[in-house]
Amino acid sequence: MEGNILTPQGWVRGRLRVVDGRIAAVDGTPANPEDNADPYVLPGFIDLHIHGGGGVDLMEGAHCIDTIGRTQVRFGTTSFLLTTMTAPEAQIRTVLAGIGERGDARAAGCARVLGVHLEGPYISPLRLGAQPDAAAIGTMAQIRAYLELAPIKVVTIAPEISGHLELIEQLAGLGLRVQLGHSAATYDDACRALHSGARGFTHLFNAMSAMHHREPGMVGAALAHAEYAELIPDLLHVHPGAIRAALRAIPRLYVVTDGTAAVGMPDGAYHLGEQSVTKCLGAVRLADGTLAGSALTMDQALRNLVSLGFPLDDVSKRLSLYPASYLGLADRGRLEPGAWADAVVLDRSLMLARTYVEGEAIVDHA
Could you say which residues bind Zn(2+) here (predicted)? Predict the structure, then answer.
């Protein structure tokens, strides 16, 4: 991998040396990428919110995982969380059991699965968004049972639901990342949840109580207090002005796609959980027009943010370093000795040329 390499210390013009899937050295000298025509070499993208891709949805079963992984890696995603939908307990158990039985092996040509994001069912029936109407009150016993089935890393919770503040504290004590979302919580509800151990917000602005100057809501709590939050920058879910406000307010705001089965596919009909959705003109919607996840890819998310005037090195952190840091992963999301050799090579137009996952060259558009 040669070019303008973005390291934690800044840009280096040179090459990465890889041994056994990890970076052994970064050879080169500090450089300004604007002073040469070499390609950009960035850390591979890490997406903590993916439901599907390549025409398949995770809730169909664990047999879809490799299709999702091969689809996502085509667009620079080198590792990701499999994200479940709100559904009856039996269906969630079946999907999680399949994930657990599959183990942690990575199939050739796939992005690395980092674990599971449990998005629901512990959400508000008042803020379902595109989630099915199967919201439930969470219990520690149920989540412990789920944890025995699969490696859950992130749980989305509506904190205003009775018993959920105590649940948030218990989950945080286990080391899980608790995110607030799909919620009608007040500002005070959200602040209490952060005090109880919640650390992030699920697709900021979407499916949560909005900010008003007299009722700040969950959005206001995020802008005032959050260190981490997800955001979908497809320029459909969130207005550019709101994106700018969030990037100024939340230090480690990071990018997710909320990608669905429609990722990498032509316009047409697909599934999101048990629901039918339609991809048209770049958007994925329910029959009533509600946005239902997205068809966004991480490389397009990067180009979107750069087009709004944000520096490439800052945008890169929001697609790689910050999500890795959020999960507590010190060996991903950065190009430095000892880290996994997950990288993307972009041409000067920021189009993806090559993708490497743990040193394996998977995508080559050069």
Answer: 119, 182, 203
User: Residues annotated in the binding site, as ranges?
Assistant: 119, 130, 182, 203, 206-207, 214, 237, 291-293
pLDDT band at 313 (very low <50, low <70, confident <90, very high): very high
Domain count, the chain: 1
> Residue 272's domain is classified under what CATH number?
3.20.20.140
List, in sequence order, every beta strand (DSSP E) within the chain: 2-7, 10-19, 22-30, 40-43, 45-50, 52-53, 56-57, 77-84, 112-119, 152-157, 177-180, 200-201, 228-231, 252-255, 268-272, 275-280, 283-285, 343-346, 352-357, 360-364
The residues that are catalytic are: 258
- Structural domain harbouring 106: 45-331
State pTM to two decimals: 0.97
Q: Quick one: what percent of the chain has pLDDT higher than 90? A: 98
Residue 362 domain-assigned (yes or no): no
Binding site for Zn(2+): what residues are annotated? Answer: 119, 182, 203
pLDDT bucket at 363, cuts 50 / 70 / 90 = confident
